[in-house]
Design a protein that fits this description.
The complex is a heterodimer of chains A (163) and B (835). Chain A has 163 residues and is an alpha+beta fold. Chain A contains four helices and ten strands; from the N terminus they run H-E-E-E-E-E-H-E-E-E-H-E-E-H. Chain B is α/β, with parallel strands linked by helices and 835 residues long. Helix content of chain B is 41%, strand content 25%. Classes of the chains: A alpha+beta (163), B alpha/beta (835).
Chain lengths: 163, 835
């Protein structure tokens, strides 16, 4: 209150900008039917273990149901279904990656959730032209890791369902 | 400056809202000095503040208007309708400028010169100078002198005990309370599984406080419906000028409260319907004179509470719906064939006006008849879980009835299961539950693929929840289950489910955008056990099943039949329970205020008697059988009689069922505490004498709850001892002084004997002189002519109610509807109690 910087915007822009770009390149890795994928950490609100999910009749096939996250209702979208992969065998469990899009919470169901990595956007390779059509829509590009390829998922596109 | 302007806008809006009403009042009674002072004060305040804030346009108009008002006040100029119109125009200009200020922060551009010139002309006396006469002026001046200061003093002395709170804050509070209720429910569920947990007592308190908090927050959202009506008198006045009709608007029950969210949603439909009544419903003065009616048409708005709902009626005494024209239009639009129409009741034909694009006005006027009509009204009302219906008689008028829930925030819902999934059905739409299949239950029958159920001699169309939701469908598994009888837009149908759990209070939350296209669900919620559940939308289910169309050929007949059989004299809803050895016991459901399962740990002993803390007071508990001891642990089922401050609980062993049975009594009065016995489901069942048990609970039960001057005197005319025994205790318990007679003839003898009462409650069917004849005789004249009269009858179909009103009854109540009767008594006696 007492000291007012002469030009606050110029002073503060640099550090926050740096943090923002750091955070923007941080990705949470997850596995869907054996395929390593990643989503931006900034979009993720929570990672949950196995949850009781209520099925929703008449919902699009990819919608697994809804679950209760500390009193908020979260709609669960099964990444396997969304990415055209075979559904989970009975007994196989799913992890919930809760993301916020447009003020609504959604849970992306993945088979495993891995670690948080910082990925340099410049190292991202575009989608190979031969990539399956059902994946092209949701992939923002591919990162080469030592022993595998990591597909960067477009969260908003994944949730553009039933509209 | 911004804050100042915001405060000014809020204040000015409030002032402007009352300005219209005050001007109309002044028009009716130009000599009312206090109203004139009020108008002057509002305009003067606006003028003064805008000078300060630098709003030249507003100030200019206000100044010119104030000049005219000042002359009126001094008595130099008479108040004329033309003058009122001029000031109303100025009020409109204020609103226009204020709206502009709100939107942009500065005054909108515009030319006020003509208006100001007209006002100045009026002020200089150019308009209607010849109307000035001494008689009109002097009383006006005197009233100002007499009432002006008296009016101002109390206003200054008692600053209103209210503060202004932003609606957003209240909304947030409501959301938080809803969440709290859900969390409480969850905790309660956990506690139930854990016996003797240390936290069960504090949890009980938490639960109680949560409920109170919920009530409290709900109250902050409640507003009198009169707020939604405040613009209507002006609307009607303008319409009557535009249409050249003479219209009188009567508003009853303006203080009936409802949730402001609901109110916002019904404002537009309401305005539309009043417009419709004025434009289509009422005739011109010439037409009315020719039809032998008063030249001034009447529009009546009425609002009252009924159960968890508020009922709004918009009626007119105009020409009524033209059945032939509706028929012609139906055929022209291909909605029905002539043969179909021939089999339909008049009421069903009238209901066609709720169809999309249906307007019977021969020509489109500027007021209404643009094709967006009753269908939009109906859709809007149904969207908030309400229903709308109408009754109309040619040359007598049309009345629309809207029934809407009091609040949308928290609702009771029935939890059902189908195909292994649980769903919630809003309780408001559920009429009854029928168990089907099994060994001796009614059977679901099929006509080709359509399932139907025979329900009291009518065919009820059925919709399988498994089928409409495409759950694992296995036709065989439906042999047993439940039918949830639901009503949507006058159409009765049954939803077949596998199981029914209990009811829960739910907080309706909207579904995620990616699921909004599924019309079967109106929302979702979290249950007490923490699981997410979808809330079914009966409207959507009906539409998906092709049932939602208004005016299906047999819907009306079916509904009427169901309504009468639900309420008929022969069928009574009885609550069956077990208490002590011997036959099951029963009590008419309508007499029981609530059913509770009390936590045994909460029951306390004071000397010989048992009490429990219940809704903030101590409620005595009476064992219905001496053998019944309160349970040591677990839950004690209790029937609660009475209300809030004066409740009494009857402990029973087990609550069994609610049945709808013909009531035929035997062995009347053999044992104290019982009226007699009747046969329910082939078993002899003892019928409880509630009056006896209420006296056991509190010896002073029939003393007035509050010692207030004189108790209102009620005359009850009822021939059946049985009903008298049921009704009289309920009325006495509410603090009334009751006199009973066996028929209308005896009632009239009391009148001749010079007896005085405050209200008459009468049965319809009685020997010697029935209720209708009694009402007519009372209304003919004599000391009782103005008394409110309440009809009690087994059948309360709209037609019966109409007949009752014609005979002179003020209200019409179904027998056994204790709450409705007490509410009606209170309503009828309000003017008296206010004195």
């Amino acid at each position: 209150m007492q000291t007012v910087p002469t030009n606050p915007s110029a002073e503060s822009r640099l550090p926050t900008g740096a943090i923002a770009s750091d955070a923007a390149s941080m990705m949470l890795t997850l596995t869907v039917a054996g395929q390593p994928c990643a989503v931006p950490v900034l979009a993720v609100r929570d990672v949950l273990g196995v949850q009781a999910i209520t099925r929703i009749p008449l919902a699009p096939r990819e919608v697994a149901g809804s679950l209760n996250l500390r009193g908020r209702i979260v709609t669960a979208v099964d990444l396997r279904g969304r990415l055209g992969l075979p559904s989970r065998a009975p007994g196989e469990v799913a992890m919930s990656v809760v993301v916020e899009v447009g003020g609504e919470l959604y849970s992306l169901l993945a088979d495993q959730v891995g670690e948080v990595l910082t990925l340099n956007p410049e190292e991202r390779a575009p989608n190979p032209p031969t990539l399956d059509a059902s994946w092209k829509e949701f992939s923002l590009g591919v990162h080469r890791r030592d022993d595998h390829l990591l597909v960067l998922l477009d969260v908003e596109q994944l949730l553009a369902l039933g509209v | 400056m911004d804050d100042l302007l915001a405060d000014f806008l809020t204040e000015t809006n409030e002032g402007l809202a009352s300005l219209d009403a005050a001007l109309l009042q002044l028009e009716r009674n130009p000599a009312n000095g206090s109203v004139l002072s009020e108008i002057f004060r509002i305009v003067h305040t606006i003028k003064g503040t805008c000078g300060f804030l630098g709003l030249p346009r507003l100030e200019g108009v206000a100044h010119a208007a104030e000049n005219v008002l000042g002359l009126w006040r001094e008595g130099t100029l008479p108040v004329t309708p033309a003058g009122i119109t001029l000031i109303l125009t100025a009020a409109d200009r204020f609103k226009l400028i204020v709206a502009g200020l709100e939107a942009t922060g500065s005054e909108p551009a515009g030319d006020d010169a003509p208006l100001k010139a007209a006002l100045d002309a009026a002020a200089s006396g150019e308009v209607a100078v010849e109307e000035i006469n001494a008689e009109a002026v002097i009383p006006a001046a005197e009233t100002i002198a007499a009432e002006g200061p008296a009016e101002a003093a109390p206003a200054a002395g008692n600053a209103p005990q209210t503060i202004r709170v932003a609606v957003d804050v209240l909304e947030d509070l409501m959301v938080l309370v809803s969440e709290l209720v859900l969390t409480r429910n969850q905790l309660m569920q956990l506690a139930r599984a854990e016996e003797n947990a240390a936290f069960s007592v504090p949890l009980q308190r938490l639960s109680q406080i949560t409920s109170d908090l919920q009530d409290g927050v709900m109250k902050t959202r409640m507003q009198p419906i009169g707020n939604a009506w405040s613009k209507l008198p002006r609307l009607v006045r303008d319409l009557s000028h535009d249409l050249g009709k003479r219209i009188e608007l009567e508003m009853r029950g303006a203080d009936t409260e409802l949730d402001r969210q609901v109110m916002e949603l019904i404002k537009d439909p309401l305005t539309h319907m009043v417009r419709n009544s004025a434009d289509h419903g009422l005739e011109t003065p010439e037409q009315r004179r020719a039809a032998g009616k008063k030249e001034t048409g009447r529009i009546l708005l009425n609002a009252f509470h009924e159960g968890g709902h508020i009922v709004l009626q918009i009626g007119d005494d105009g020409r009524g719906l033209n059945t032939d024209r509706i028929k012609a239009k139906c055929i022209a639009q291909g909605l029905a064939t002539e043969a179909e129409l021939a089999t339909m009741s008049e009421r069903d034909i009238h209901r066609f006006i709720f169809r999309a694009g249906f307007s019977t006005a021969a020509e489109v006027t500027s007021v209404s008849g643009r094709g967006v009509g009753m269908d939009v009204v109906k859709t809007n009302i149904e969207r908030i879980g309400g229903t709308v219906d109408l009754t109309s008689r040619e040359h007598r008028g049309t009345t629309f009835s809207i029934k809407i829930p009091l609040t949308l925030a928290i609702a009771a819902a029935l939890i059902v299961e189908a195909g292994g999934e649980r769903f919630a059905i809003p309780q408001a739409g559920v009429l009854e539950l029928v168990r089907v299949g099994g060994v001796d239950g009614p059977k679901v029958e099929r006509i080709k693929d359509s399932a139907v159920l025979r329900l009291r001699g009518q065919l009820l169309p059925l919709v399988s929840l498994r089928q409409v939701l495409r759950l694992d469908h296995d036709a065989g598994a439906e042999a047993e289950g439940f039918v949830v009888v639901t009503q949507v837009a006058g159409q009765l149908f049954g939803i077949v489910v596998d199981r029914v759990f209990d009811t829960e209070e739910i907080v309706v939350k909207p579904v995620a955008p990616i699921l909004r296209h599924i019309t079967m669900f109106s929302g979702n919620t979290i249950l007490g056990d923490g699981s997410v559940i979808m809330i079914l939308d009966p409207n959507g289910i009906a539409r998906a099943s092709g049932l939602g169309l208004e005016g299906g050929t047999e819907s009306g007949a079916l509904e009427e039949a169901a309504a009468t059989s639900r309420r008929s004299d022969r069928h009574t809803a009885l609550l069956l329970f077990r208490a002590g050895p011997g036959a099951p016991k029963a009590v008419p459901l309508g007499l029981v205020a609530r059913l509770e399962n009390l936590d045994a740990a909460r029951i306390e002993r004071t000397g010989e008697s048992l009490v429990v803390q219940y809704r903030g007071t101590l409620m005595p508990l009476i064992p219905l059988d001496h053998g019944i001891m309160p349970a040591e642990t677990g839950e004690q089922p209790v029937l609660v009689f009475g209300d809030g401050d004066r409740a009494m609980g009857l402990m029973v062993d087990e609550i069994l069922d609610v049945v709808d049975v013909p009531l035929e009594m035997d062995n009347a009065g053999l044992r104290p505490g019982f009226l007699g016995s009747c046969v329910v489901d082939g078993k002899v069942t003892d019928l409880l004498d509630t009056g006896y048990w209420l006296k056991q609970g509190q010896s002073d039960w029939f003393e007035p709850a509050v010692v207030s001057g004189a108790r209102p005197r009620v005359l009850v005319a009822e021939d059946s001892d049985f009903f008298r025994n049921l009704i009289v205790p309920a009325i006495m318990a509410a603090g009334y002084d009751v006199t009973t007679v066996g028929n209308g003839r005896d009632a009239l003898r009391l009148r001749e004997a010079g007896e005085r009462f405050d209200v008459i409650v009468s049965d319809i069917h009685m020997p010697e002189l029935d209720g209708m004849a009694l009402a007519r005789a009372v209304r003919e004249g004599g000391p009782w002519a103005e008394l409110p009269m309440i009809a009690l009858s087994g059948s309360a179909s709209p037609a019966d109610v109409e007949r009752g009103r014609e005979a002179g009854f003020s209200d019409y109540i179904a027998k056994f509807d204790r709450d409705a009767l007490l509410a009606s008594l209170q309503h009828c006696l309000q003017p008296m109690l206010a004195r």
